[in-house]
């Protein structure tokens, strides 16, 4: 059944449509989960286009949203405005104490992310492998000190500094300071991110 669903629907587009219906009704992921009897984890994965729900699950989601199943699985013709409420932003606590919050809505076919990040004092977030050619990353530091390792080059950024780099080489993020480093990352990645790309290092003394 899952294979059939994957073949029937563009999963990212379906997920984005479900998210728009949910946020348009002022529902959080938890609120919809409680209403339709589908777990928060499943709802989140479906909205991201990472998991194909069965027809039974889609029918439950449709019931929770108060729409017919056929409307749920029909792509919204107006994709020009996508709202992501603050309550629906994904915050991830990574090993080593660093925290990432993905601010941007999911837009089918667009691998763009705007991420707010905080690194504790002395925290090294690890290294990330090179992305495909044509990828772009912008960094803007709000507070503290951020140390960027870009191949063999090391650049220290202070509050108010910004940086652009093409992530076609191994790159890393670290906070060598004694106060938290808070910064924003705007990234256009030409291939989807996959789990386990970062190799977090131990917290420095």
Any chance you could write out the topology, listing elements then pairs?
Elements: H1 2-8, H2 11-24, H3 29-36, H4 40-47, H5 55-65, H6 69-72, E1 90-93, E2 99-102, E3 112-119, E4 124-128, E5 136-143, E6 146-150, E7 153-157, E8 162-165, E9 171-174, E10 181-188
Antiparallel strand pairs: 1-2, 2-3, 3-10, 4-9, 5-8, 5-10, 6-7, 6-9
Helix pairs in contact: 3-5
Write a short abstract of this structure.
Helix content is 25%, strand content 27%. With 205 residues, the chain is of the alpha+beta class. The strands form two sheets. Strands 1-2-3-10-5-8 form a six-stranded antiparallel β-sheet, with no helix packed on it. Strands 4-9-6-7 form a four-stranded antiparallel β-sheet, with no helix packed on it.
Description of the molecule:
The protein is α+β, with helices and mostly antiparallel strands and 205 residues long. The protein is built from six helices and ten strands, in the order ααααααββββββββββ. The protein has helices at 2-8, 11-24, 29-36, 40-47, 55-65, 69-72; strands at residues 90-93, 99-102, 112-119, 124-128, 136-143, 146-150, 153-157, 162-165, 171-174, 181-188. Strands 1-2-3-10-5-8 form a six-stranded antiparallel sheet, with no helix packed on it. α3 packs across α5. The longest helix has 14 residues, at 11-24. The N and C termini lie far apart (52 Å).
Key structural traits:
205 residues; four-stranded antiparallel beta sheet; elongated; disordered N terminus
Beta-strand residue percentage:
25-35%
Total helical segments:
6
Q: What structural class results from the helix and strand content?
A: alpha+beta
Gross morphology is elongated
- Biggest sheet architecture: 6 strands, antiparallel
Quick check: average pLDDT? Answer: 81
- DSSP summary, beta strand count: 10
**Helix coverage percent of residues?**
25-40%
Secondary-structure element string: HHHHHHEEEEEEEEEE
């Amino acid at each position: 059944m899952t294979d059939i669903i994957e073949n029937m629907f563009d999963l990212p587009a379906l997920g984005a449509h479900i998210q728009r219906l949910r946020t348009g009704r002022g529902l959080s992921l938890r609120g919809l989960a409680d209403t339709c009897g589908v777990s928060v984890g499943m709802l989140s994965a479906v909205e991201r286009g990472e998991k194909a729900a069965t027809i039974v699950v889609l029918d439950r989601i449709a019931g929770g949203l108060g729409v017919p199943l056929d409307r749920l699985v029909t792509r919204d013709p107006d994709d020009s405005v996508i709202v992501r409420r603050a309550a629906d932003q994904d915050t991830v606590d990574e090993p080593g104490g660093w925290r990432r919050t993905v601010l941007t809505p999911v837009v089918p076919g667009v691998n763009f992310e705007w991420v707010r990040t905080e690194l504790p004092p002395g925290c090294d977030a690890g290294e990330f492998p090179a992305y495909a050619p044509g990828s772009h990353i912008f960094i803007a530091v709000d507070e503290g000190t951020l140390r960027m390792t870009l191949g063999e080059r090391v650049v220290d950024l202070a509050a108010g500094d910004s940086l652009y780099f093409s992530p076609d080489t191994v790159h890393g993020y670290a906070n060598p300071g004694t106060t938290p480093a808070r910064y924003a990352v705007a990234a256009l990645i030409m291939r989807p991110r996959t789990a386990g790309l970062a190799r977090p290092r131990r917290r420095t003394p």
